[in-house]
Write a structure and sequence with these properties.
9 strands, 120 residues, mainly beta, 13% helix, nine-stranded antiparallel β-sheet
């Protein structure tokens, strides 16, 4: 009996520790003239995934975190022809994420706001 109880406790702690966030899955958005697809996977609040630009450019999430209805992550992008990290901040509102995006170097560019919707 003790072995069974210990096994159930270990299984339940594994389920709780590998808890996903509501951001997991695929999302489509339009930022200016860029058609973007976001694919997120999370584990204990850490977010990994991919940002895909229409036309086949896939960029991995370098680091990311999610808590409650907020997500923050960084991807490498291009700014004026040079590689530049971009930071995304999003707030979940139902099946939509309201995003803000800007270059990590705050002296470059400006904040761009857009939204993405969950792919069913």
């Amino acid at each position: 009996m003790r072995v069974l109880v210990l096994g159930v406790c270990l299984w339940m702690s594994a389920v709780v520790c590998s808890a996903q966030t509501p951001f997991d899955g695929q999302w489509n958005g339009m930022a200016g003239n860029e058609n973007l697809t976001f694919t997120f996977t999370s584990d204990e609040g850490k977010v990994t995934g991919m940002v895909s630009l229409e036309g086949g450019v896939d960029t991995p999430v370098e680091w990311g975190f999610a808590k409650s209805d907020l997500i923050v992550f960084k991807v490498m992008g291009e700014f004026r022809g040079a590689p530049e990290p971009f930071v995304y901040v999003g707030k979940l509102e139902g099946d939509e994420i309201a995003f803000g995006r800007r270059p990590e170097d705050l002296s470059l560019g400006r904040l761009r706001e857009f939204s993405a919707t969950r792919v069913p």
